[in-house]
């Protein structure tokens, strides 16, 4: 099975590879910087889901893949504040695309204010944490949980939710 991931972000690629290996699903992996075709900073569950779907569909169209995975990060407004949200899509030709979402955490007001003003979370997290490339490492969730849940774990959980729905893979 040829599996394509619609991102060059190492935290996403590693999460896909790790989860499929853990589930003993054999395959070869490839990755491409697939466009999400949504805002740079998706601002709702719907937009973040659409970004994940668009990335997976782009992989199917542009790569010789049997299975395509799109993973997308965003934020969502709630009456209780702005929350981090992440979504994954698993697409195969001729089949219904599967969707799964990851853990959420409320973002501190000082981050939320800047996001609402139009800034992107990745660069904001680097400034806030005084670290580099947080989006490709522990992620915002890792910073705000003091490493209890890092971004790789969040994407691994999403991947488990996706491939767990693939009943035919486990027969
Ligand atoms: O430090 C972060 N920790 C996170 O937990 C997180 N979740 C989302 N974002 C940011 O939101 C935008 C879209 O997310 P995103 O997943 O589409 O892009 P990405 O740059 O992370 O990956 P990719 O586009 O290379 O695949 C980008 O500015 C990301 O940096 C995060 N940044």
UniProtKB/TrEMBL annotation:
Its EC number is 3.6.1.73. It is an enzyme of class 3 (hydrolase). InterPro entries: ITPase-like_fam (IPR029001), NTPase/PRRC1 (IPR026533), YjjX_NTPase (IPR050299). The keyword GTP-binding does not apply. GO terms for molecular function: ITPase activity; metal ion binding; nucleotide binding. Its cofactor is Mg(2+); Mn(2+). It holds the Pfam family NTPase_I-T. Residues 6-157 form the Non-canonical purine NTP phosphatase/PRRC1 domain. Keywords: Hydrolase, Magnesium, Manganese, Metal-binding, Nucleotide metabolism, Nucleotide-binding. This is inosine/xanthosine triphosphatase.
